[in-house]
Design goal:
Blueprint (H helix, E strand, L loop, with lengths): L1 E3 L2 H4 L17 E3 L18 H21 L5 E8 L2 E9 L16 E2 L5 H13 L31 H5 L26 H8 L16 H15 L3 H13 L5 E2 L31 H4 L1 E3 L1 H12 L9 H8 L3 E2 L5 E3 L4 E5 L2 E10 L2 E8 L4 E7 L6 H21 L16 E4 L5 E5 L7 E3 L2 E5 L11 E7 L8 H6 L2 E9 L2 E7 L6 E4 L1
Helix pairs in contact: 2-11, 3-6, 3-7
Length: about 525
C-alpha cells in the first residue's frame, strides 16, 4: 500500500523555517522524487499466538519436506523468535542414528561452527564497555605478540579490533595450524607464543578497510588477544564472563566433552558417524569451536534485537554491532560486527552461518520487526536450505501481520484531543493541528506527530514532546527523507489546557493556540 503525497503538501513554506512535519504511517510511504519510494518497516508489537498458528503449521510442513529432500540430514532442531520470545520450536529426525527415540528438541546441543564468532564479538564489546579497549584501538597496542607483514604499511594503519571483527583486516583465511610440530590428532594444539610467532611470518592479503576477506584467523587473533588482555584462557573467559552471566546452560566452549543425553552426534554427508568431529579446536576455538542449542541461540538473537534497553550489553553496543561496516556493490549483502548481511525482499537481515565437519547451523534475524530464526543440524552444510525455505515464507508473513494489525499510537495522559486546534505565530503564520481519526493520532497540515514519552523532563512538568521529520524539498533521497531530519515539537500544557508549541528549528517562534 502506497500513499502518494502531492508536492504542495510535502512542502510548508514559512519565514522562520518551521520544521516540515513528515508522515507517520504503518504502511509504506512514497513522496514524489526522482529517487523513488522509501520503504518503512512496520513497528514490532505483540501478536497473539492464535494469529501465528497457521504460520507455524506451514513452517513445520516446509521443514518436514526439506528434511525428506535432504536425505543425508540425520537430525535437525529449529526455532522462531518473535518480540524477544522463542514462540515455536521443533526437532526432526534423530540426534543419534542408533537410538530411534532420540528425537532432538530445543535443548539438543550441536556444534555451531562460525556462530562461535559471535561470542568473541560479545567479549570485545564487553571489554570496550569496561574501558579496557576501544574497538578502534590497534590490536598490537594491547597485545604486543601480534605482528604480521604488511606490504601496504606506508599508507595503511595497523589492524584494529573492529577490522578483525568485520573481516576487513586483510588477513589470510586460516590460522597457521597443523604443522609437523603440532600435537598429532589434535587440531591447532599450539600455545599463544607459537601461534603469534607463526602469524608474524605471514603476509596480509589486502590493505585494511578495503574489501572483506573472510578470515577465521582474524577471529582467532581477536579472541586470543582478548584472553591475553584478561589473563585468562579463552574457554574460561567466555564461560565465566559471558555464558554463566547470561544463563546459557546449553552452550559451551570446545566439543571434546563426552556426549550426553542432549548431544546431537555428528555425521558425514554419507550418513556415517564422524568419530573425530567433536575434537578440540585448540588455539582456533574463537573461530568455530563452540556448541549450543536452539534455546540459547534464541536468547542470543532476542538480546541483539532489543536495541533500546541495557541488559548484558549496553543498547548502544548492540546497535553498534548491527551497523553495516561494508556493503557489496550490488547492495544485496555485506558485513556488520560480525553479522553477515543479506537482502531478503525489502529487508537486510542479519545472519551467521556455521559449518564444521559433522554440523551445520544458521541464525537469522530482522531487528526492525524483531523476528529471528535458528536451524541446527548434525550433518555439515545442511542448515542453509531449511533456513532459506523458512525465512522466505515467514518474513513476509510476519511483516504483513504486523502491518495489518498496527499497535495503538501512544498518547500523553491528557489524550490527544486537547492538542487539536489552530495555532498562530507572531507573524500571523497559521498551522492547524487535527485528529482525523477521533483522537487516535495527530496531524498538522496532513503530517503526523508521534508522542515521545521518553523525552519528557521531570523538571518541566508542563511540557509534552512530539517527534516529526523535516523535509527540505522534493528531490531528497530516501536516506535523507527517512533519517536526515527528525525534529521535536514541544507543547506547553497548563492545567490540562494546551497553550502553545515551539519547534527546535524555529528558535524564537511560538505558535499560540487561537
Amino acid at each position: 500500500r502506497v500513499l502518494n503525497v502531492s508536492p504542495d503538501l510535502c512542502v510548508m513554506r514559512h519565514l522562520h523555517g518551521v520544521l516540515l512535519l513528515s508522515i507517520f504511517f504503518w504502511s509504506n510511504a512514497e513522496f514524489p522524487s526522482k529517487w523513488g519510494s522509501c520503504f518503512r518497516a512496520p513497528k514490532p508489537h505483540k501478536v497473539e499466538q492464535s494469529q501465528l498458528k497457521a504460520a507455524f503449521d506451514h513452517v513445520d510442513s516446509i521443514l518436514s519436506t526439506v528434511l525428506k529432500e535432504r536425505i543425508h540430514t540425520v537430525g535437525m532442531s529449529a526455532g522462531i523468535v518473535l518480540n524477544g520470545e522463542l514462540v515455536w520450536s521443533k526437532g526432526y529426525g534423530l540426534r543419534d542414528k542408533t537410538n530411534t527415540s532420540s528425537v532432538p528438541d530445543k535443548y539438543s546441543n550441536y556444534g555451531i561452527g562460525s556462530i562461535s564468532k559471535i561470542f568473541a564479538m560479545i567479549e570485545m564489546m564487553k571489554t570496550q564497555e569496561e574501558g579496557i579497549i576501544n574497538i578502534e584501538d590497534t590490536v598490537e597496542s594491547h597485545n604486543p605478540l601480534f605482528k604480521i607483514k604488511n606490504p601496504w604499511e606506508s599508507h595503511s594503519r595497523p589492524i584494529t579490533f573492529r577490522q578483525l571483527c568485520c573481516h576487513l583486516a586483510g588477513l589470510p583465511r586460516e590460522a597457521p595450524c597443523n604443522t609437523s610440530d603440532d600435537k598429532p590428532g589434535e587440531f591447532c594444539a599450539i600455545d599463544q607464543k607459537t601461534a603469534f610467532n607463526r602469524i608474524a611470518q605471514l603476509d596480509m592479503i589486502e590493505p585494511v578497510d578495503v574489501v572483506p576477506i573472510y578470515s577465521n584467523l582474524g577471529f582467532d587473533v581477536l579472541g586470543n588477544s582478548l584472553a591475553i588482555i584478561h589473563n585468562m584462557t579463552y574457554k574460561d573467559m567466555i564461560t565465566n564472563r559471558i555464558l554463566k552471566p547470561l544463563g546459557y546452560t546449553g552452550t559451551g566452549v570446545g566439543l571434546n566433552t563426552s556426549p550426553n543425553a542432549t548431544t546431537a552426534l555428528p555425521y558425514f554427508a554419507t550418513g556415517k558417524f564422524c568419530t573425530y568431529c567433536r575434537s578440540a579446536f585448540g588455539w582456533s576455538t574463537p573461530a568455530g569451536g563452540m556448541y549450543s542449542t536452539v534455546n540459547d541461540l534464541a536468547k542470543l538473537m532476542a538480546m541483539f534485537m532489543e536495541t533500546t534497553t541495557n541488559d548484558f550489553l549496553l543498547a548502544s553496543s548492540k546497535r553498534q554491532t548491527l551497523l553495516p561496516r561494508y556493503i557489496d556493490s550490488d547492495r544485496e549483502g555485506g558485513f556488520a560486527l560480525p553479522w553477515e548481511l543479506y537482502r531478503v525482499g525489502d529487508y537486510m537481515v542479519r545472519t551467521k552461518r556455521g559449518d564444521v565437519e559433522g554440523y551445520s547451523s544458521e541464525i537469522l534475524f530482522v531487528p526492525e520487526i524483531k523476528l529471528g530464526m535458528v536451524v541446527l543440524t548434525n550433518v555439515v552444510e545442511q542448515a542453509p536450505p531449511p533456513m532459506q525455505a523458512m525465512a522466505s515464507y515467514l518474513l513476509p508473513y510476519v511483516a504483513g501481520l504486523l502491518r495489518s494489525t498496527p499497535p495503538a499510537a501512544m498518547a500523553p495522559s491528557i489524550g490527544l484531543e486537547p492538542f487539536v486546534g489552530v495555532y498562530k505565530d507572531q507573524t500571523g503564520y497559521e498551522i492547524e493541528v487535527q485528529s482525523p481519526d477521533g483522537g487516535k493520532t495527530l496531524t498538522a497540515m496532513g503530517f503526523g506527530l508521534e508522542y515521545m514519552p521518553e523525552l519528557q523532563h521531570p523538571q518541566i512538568a508542563n511540557e509534552v514532546v512530539f517527534q516529526t521529520r523535516r523535509r527540505d524539498g522534493d528531490q531528497q533521497t530516501c536516506i535523507l527523507f527517512e533519517f536526515g531530519g527528525k525534529q521535536l515539537v514541544r507543547f506547553l500544557v497548563d492545567g490540562g489546557e494546551v497553550k502553545s508549541f515551539t519547534t527546535e528549528n524555529a528558535w524564537g517562534s511560538v505558535f499560540r493556540r487561537q
